[in-house]
Amino acid sequence: MILSDTSNIVREKKRAKMSFNRIFLNIIIILCVCLNWDCSEGAHEKQRRAINSHTIQLSSLFPSPSSPCVLSTRASNTKSSLHVTHRHGTCSRITSAKAKSPDHAEILRLDQARVNSIHSKLSKKLTDRVRQSKSTALPAKDGSTYGTGNYVVTVGIGTPKHDLSLIFDTGSDLTWIQCEPCVRTCYSQKEPIFNPSSSSSYHNVSCSSAECSSLSSATGNSGSCSASNCVYGIQYGDQSFSVGFLAKEKFTLTASNVFDGVSFGCGENNQGLFTGVAGLLGLGRDKLSFPSQTASTYNKIFSYCLPSSASYTGHLTFGSAGISRSVKFTPISTITDGTSFYGLDIVGISVGGQDLAIPPTVFSTPGGLIDSGTVISRLPPRAYAALRSSFKAKMLQYKNTSAVSILDTCFDLTGLKTVTIPTVSFRFSGGAVVELGSRGVLYAFKMSQVCLAFAGNSDENNAAIFGNVQQQTLEVVYDGAGGRVGFAPNGCK
Ligand SMILES: *[C@@H]1O[C@H](CO)[C@@H](O)[C@H](O)[C@H]1NC(C)=O
Ligand SMILES: *[C@@H]1O[C@H](CO)[C@@H](O)[C@H](O)[C@H]1NC(C)=O
After folding, report:
1. Which of 113, 153, 283, 300 is 20 to 30 A distant from 316 in Cα terms?
2. Are residues 462 and 380 in contact, defined by beta-carbon separation less than 8 angstroms?
3. For 266, left (φ over 0), alpha (ψ -120 to 50), or beta?
4. What does UniProt give as the signal peptide span (predicted)?
């Protein structure tokens, strides 16, 4: 009896041990599977939900002006790479301690001036094409290109080299800097104004040269002559301008990336919204642009990442060095052929993982482009209406508030620590799908006014523009030779 009891106990213990082993084994199996992100319905659900929204700390929308600058590792480690900074902020070499933070309403007003000018340039091109097909007259150009972007790189110019901060712009071609002597006006800039007479590698360009003839397509104004030297003039949509001599100089990007004889404008009369910077680096598609002039080295390939705040740097990299394998490409569309712009065909948008019902012709009729200098993306009116209503429906837990400038969908987030916003993805022709970074969806004026960072065009025939707020933290690749533009997530912070 006792014996049988004992053997029973032993048997029970054995059974318990076996089932414990089985449970333990099962736990191990579950753990292993879970670690492979393939655990159970629950994890799938969690993962699906995580992809359809982002929760962001509201404090990250308002970086402290005293936070230290964090440098891009890509820019630090790639030989043909420059640090990209916001024009204003901790990482910028041209921000003075006294500088006021940018006036958002003013930025958006100027943004609309730039967009109007892009649209008029494109529609002019269409009418020119019609006119040209009827007669042999040369297309008339109004000579006005559009305003100024907000991202800056530092380039060495001349011999000895002067490090100068330039706004880079994929929407224009001519590179120019302010030069001494300032015969009319120079606006104020942080670094000393370049003096060509102190550089041994400076050369004037003659007005009979091919470069001088290229000015009409690069700037919309043909070059003129002064004592057989070529004079350029470029005017931007916001009435800023630069006038001076077309010249050639040595450009030093980095110690191992030096170019002799780069054509650029040495501007002796400059005015407008460039305050602080020394000039502009033209990255457009015309033959006078910097990528075209350095094509034999970089094959018209460059990439950049625009940082999410003024306390990080991003990068501008020439050539294909370090381009991520996860970049998805879409062809440069033909709508912008004959202009500086890189055409981009948007074919769809999804919000929170759901495709918006937008008929394809809404995008294909006006076409679109990508621009480093436009701040807020512009969408055809019907596409914007669909985006706005879907976004609003997913933001019902937040208090709405009044519109500001061109942004009509705003929220009062006073008192909150975080905000959960639906993901927004763009689909481009050829099938590339790009999810915007979490900072590419909202534009924050103040805690009580945080807005959806998109606007609708007023005319359905105006081109869509993929602007720089939406490009933040994406790696954006321009492959001029391959005729394509590409995107990958997490290009910088
Ligand atoms: C370039 O042209 C300007 C204007 O004619 C002249 O003042 C300057 O000396 C020239 N520079 C060189 C290096 O030839
Ligand atoms: C908030 O949304 C409601 C409902 O759409 C609307 O009636 C109200 O005018 C909005 N408030 C503001 C401040 O825009």
Report:
1. 113
2. yes
3. beta
4. none
- Ligand 2 pocket: which of 397, 400, 408 to mutate (most atoms within 8 A of CB): 400
Ligand 2 atom closest to 403 (CA):
14
Retrieve residue 311's tokens.
């306390």
Vertex 267: Cα angle to 147 and 87 (nearest 5): 45
* Cα separation, 61 vs 91, whole angstroms: 16
Tens of pLDDT, residues 189-244: 999 999 999 999 999 999 999 999 999 999 989 999 999 999 999 988 777 899 99
| Residue with the two structure tokens 């099962």 | 26
Q: Whose CA is nearest to atom 1 of ligand 1?
A: 204
Closest residue by Cα to residue 462 from 126, 119, 118, 127? 119
Residue 479, beta-bridge partner list: 301, 484
Report yes or no: 478 and 335 within 8 Å, Cβ to Cβ: no
d(CA 313, CA 115): 26
Phi, then psi, of 118 in degrees rounded to 5: -65, -45
Question: Which two three-digit tokens encode residue 67?
Answer: 């936070």
User: In the predicted model, what is the mean pLDDT of the chain?
Assistant: 86
Cα(176)–Cα(297) distance, integer angstroms: 21
Ligand that comes closest to the CA of residue 402:
2
Distant-in-sequence, close-in-space partners of 356: CB < 8 Å, separation ≥ 6: 348, 349, 350, 383, 386, 387, 390
Which pLDDT value is given to residue 310? 84
Closest residue by CA, ligand 1 atom 2:
204
For ligand 2, atom 3: residue with the closest CA: 400
Give every residue of the chain whose pLDDT is below 70, as ranges. 1-50, 96-102, 125-149
**DSSP-assigned states of every residue in 49-101:** HHHHEEEEEGGGGS--TTSPPB--HHHHH-TTEEEEEESSSTT-TT--TTPPP
What residue ranges in 202-256 does DSSP mark as E strands? 203-204, 224-226, 229-235, 241-254
Measured from the Cα of 247, ligand 1's closest atom is: 1
Yes or no: say if 314 and 306 are a contact pair by the CB < 8 Å rule.
yes
> Ligand 1 center to residue 197 CA distance, Å?
8
* CA dihedral (364, 344, 341, 440) positive or negative: positive
DSSP H helical ranges for 94-173: 104-134
Regarding the beta carbon of 402 and ligand 2, being less than 6 Å apart is answered yes
- Reported as a single tens digit per residue, the pLDDT across 416-450 is 999 999 999 999 999 999 999 988 999 999 999 99
> DSSP secondary-structure letter at 165?
E
For 288-417, list the strands marked E by DSSP. Answer: 301-305, 314-318, 328-333, 342-344, 346-351, 354-355, 368-370, 377-379, 399-401, 410-412
Q: Tell me, using a 6 A CB cutoff, whether residue 401 lines ligand 2.
A: yes
